[in-house]
Amino acid sequence: MTTPTTPTPTGTAIRLAGVSKTFSTSSGDVVALDDIDLDIPEGGFVSLLGPSGCGKSTLLRVIGDLVTPTTGTVEVAGTIAAEARRTRQYGMAFQAPGLMDWRTVRRNIELPLQVQGVGRAERRQRADEMLELVKLTQFADHRPRQLSGGMQQRVAIARALAMQPRVLLMDEPLGALDEMNREHLQRELLRIWRATGTTVVFVTHSIPEAVFLSTEVVVMSPRPGRIASRIPVDLPYPRTDETRLTDEFQAAERHVRERLHAVLEPTTAGL
Amino acid sequence: MAATRTAPRPSAAVAPPAAPPPPVRARRGASRQLGRTLRDLATAAAVIAMALLAWEGYKALGQATGDLVPLTSLPLPVATDDAAMPHVWQVLAALAGPASTASDQTLLAYYLQQTSVTLREAAYGLALGAAVGVCLALLMRQLPWLGRASMPWLVVSQTIPLVALAPIVVVWIGGAGFPSWVAVTVISAYLAFFPVTLNTATGLLSADLTHVELMRSVAASPLQTLLLVRVPAAVPSFFTGLRLAATASVVGAVVGELSAGAGLGIGRAILTAAYYYSLAPANLYAAVLVASLAGVVFVQVIALAERLVLSKREH
Ligand SMILES: Nc1ncnc2c1ncn2[C@@H]1O[C@H](COP(=O)(O)OP(=O)(O)O)[C@@H](O)[C@H]1O
Ligand SMILES: [Mg+2]
After folding, report:
1. Residues B298, B301, B302, B303, CA torsion sign
2. What is the domain-level CATH number for residue B121?
3. Rounded to 5 degrees, what are φ and ψ at A268?
4. Boundaries of every domain in chain A
5. CB A143, CB A100: distance < 8 Å
6. Which residues of chain A have a CB within 8 Å of the CB of B10?
7. Are residues A159 and A134 in contact, defined by beta-carbon separation less than 8 angstroms?
8. Which of B51, B147, B180, B264 has the fewest Cβ atoms within 10 angstroms?
9. Ligand 1 atom 12: the closest Cα is on which residue?
10. pLDDT of residue A76
11. Is the distance from CB of A106 to CB of A123 less than 8 angstroms?
12. Residues 6 or more apart whose Cβ sits within 8 Å of residue A238
């Protein structure tokens, strides 16, 4: 078909084994995740796709050690997740950019480095590199509220990348953007991912977004949260707007859609 | 570690970034904030002018009807003779006159001098109260059990009548050999710390959960989370508390002077004027007028500081 330019996986970045998570609430227990096994290769871009409430965010937060699983183990970069977080292997970005209004854009990006104890000069230099990466150099000294939503999200991504993390965890980071900005940032995200070689776990509920971005789409099913299917996406990188128009892209999208609908309406499965 | 240079092969489909909005020019906040404060002062002056007009109008009405509500035989709530309600110009004349028979200082100069003593006590009291208030709020935030245990007592501390408490503070601090202004400062701080504690504690709790979670994701220490997220988030609430505390600190200083047996301060001067009220009624109103205006200026200075800090943060 085409020359495969997918980054070659060199190993396993993230390994989940027998992970389940039950939340105890006043109205009873909620099984958010049930017996999840998942391997994510080093340098992969894996999307978690599924209906709302199927446990995507919980799974992402379990990987990031923000939620402790009820059972099972999470290995990241060869150690347990807690150790990976302690040694600062993660960059995280969420649907809300979560920038701090009292800091300039540059100082927002510097925050993780400041926490890490990186000196002032190096911090500034690294932040400037990140600003260049997300093409916001001219806004370094602006306040976040002076930026558009899409630009704020790019700052949040730059902040997540500032520590050069092994693993980038993103929970619907483009969910609040309009279609134009969204597609633009998807392209930017792929460019950044290819430039940095980071392993990305990306939560979304948009099928085209998952297909466009990912090396693999993981479809989840709700109640209890399980992995319904894993779909490799064999489209070559770099992917462009033309990619979206190709038959291969549309076939991949259709395939993912069928799997997702099988999750939503089990009776129509197998079409 | 992974390289962080931009993609070696920028794809043709990578659109240029959306046209950036013109950078908002960071206006120097200082002059604008000063202008706003001047406007507030002008508003205050207009309010005072209206109050003076109302005063004279009421007095004129009472004089015309023999202190009765017009067209009835009901007495007016306050008598309008010159002893109970001197004319505005009588009060101003008193201010322009000598402070005492043996003095060549005007009463206004004397009252301003006394007021400066009181405002200094209030400023020290506010600084002390704010410092204590912030420390308490930080402690309560970091040790939630301490916060839960101490909050009822902090509330009780503010319901004890100040007139009952002030003499005790004066006796204790005077007994320790300190000058009386120290006792007044402590009483002022006692009133000032509470709004600062309450508002700062609320502000520390108001930190954005996504910010707190972000700090967790990069393995920040609790101290780092406090200093880099919670404290900055609490700054606006802290200033709200400080503004309330400024008012309280002036009240505390005036009431403290009444209890301290100090010879100085506008509180003391008000007490003296009340003592000689039947001889020179205008002096009491003059003293109250000067004290009130000084309090307004004091609070406005704090409000200006608040605006300067908050506007600097945002631009
Ligand atoms: N902290 C929590 N406490 C109780 N229930 C939770 C909590 N977080 C998530 N859940 C529940 O777990 C399920 C999965 O949630 P989530 O992972 O947020 O789903 P998704 O991100 O796919 O929409 C939902 O039923 C949700 O209500
Ligand atoms: Mg979610």
Report:
1. positive
2. 1.10.3720.10
3. -95, 10
4. 12-89+166-268, 101-164
5. no
6. 191
7. no
8. B51
9. A32
10. 94
11. no
12. A5, A190, A191, A194, B7, B9, B11, B13
Is B70 inside any structural domain? no
Which of B214, B227, B312, B315 should one mutate to test binding to chain A, selecting the residue with the greatest count of A CBs within 10 A?
A: B214
* Chain B residues closer than 8 Å to A193 by CB: none
Let me know if residue B132 belongs to a domain: yes
Q: How many CB atoms lie within 10 A of CB A135?
A: 18
Query: Other C-beta atoms within 10 Å of A109: how many?
Result: 30
Distance B52 CA to ligand 1 centre (A): 64
**Domain span including residue B261:** 115-310
Looking at the 3D structure of chain B, how many domains does it have? 1
Identify residue B234 by its one-letter amino acid code.
A
Q: Do B2 and A196 touch (CB under 8 A)?
A: yes
Partners of A163 on chain B (C-beta within 8 Å) are 218
- Cβ contact (<8 Å) for A96 and B13? no
Residues A12-89+166-268, CATH architecture: 3-Layer(aba) Sandwich (3.40)
CB contact under 8 A, B14 and A115: no
| Amino acid (one-letter) located at B204 | L
Tens digits of per-residue pLDDT, B89-128? Answer: 889 988 888 888 777 889 999 999 999 999 999 999 999 9
Give me the residue from A133, A161, A187 closest to B14, CB to CB. A187
Query: Residue A62 above 90 pLDDT?
Result: yes
∠B211-A30-A56 over CA atoms, to 5°? 50
Amino acid at A170: M
Nearest by Cα to A143 from B106, B275, B25: B25
Asked if B208 lies within 8 A of A98 by C-beta distance, the reply is yes
How confident is the model over B227-272, as pLDDT tens digits? Answer: 999 999 999 999 999 999 999 999 999 988 888 776 789 988 998 8
- B223 in contact with A, Cβ within 8 Å: no
Of the candidates A87, A94, A102, the beta carbon closest to that of B210 is on A94
Nearest CA in chain A to B225: A115
Using one digit for the tens of pLDDT, what is the confidence trace for B7-43? 444 444 434 444 444 444 445 567 887 888 788 788 8
Predicted ipTM of the assembly: 0.87
- Cα separation, A229 vs A47, in Å, equals 12
B72 in contact with chain A, both atoms CB, cutoff 8 A: no
Is residue B265 assigned to a domain?
yes
Would you call A112 and B232 a contact, using CB atoms and an 8 Å cutoff? no
Residues of B within 8 A of A148 (CB-CB) are 18, 21
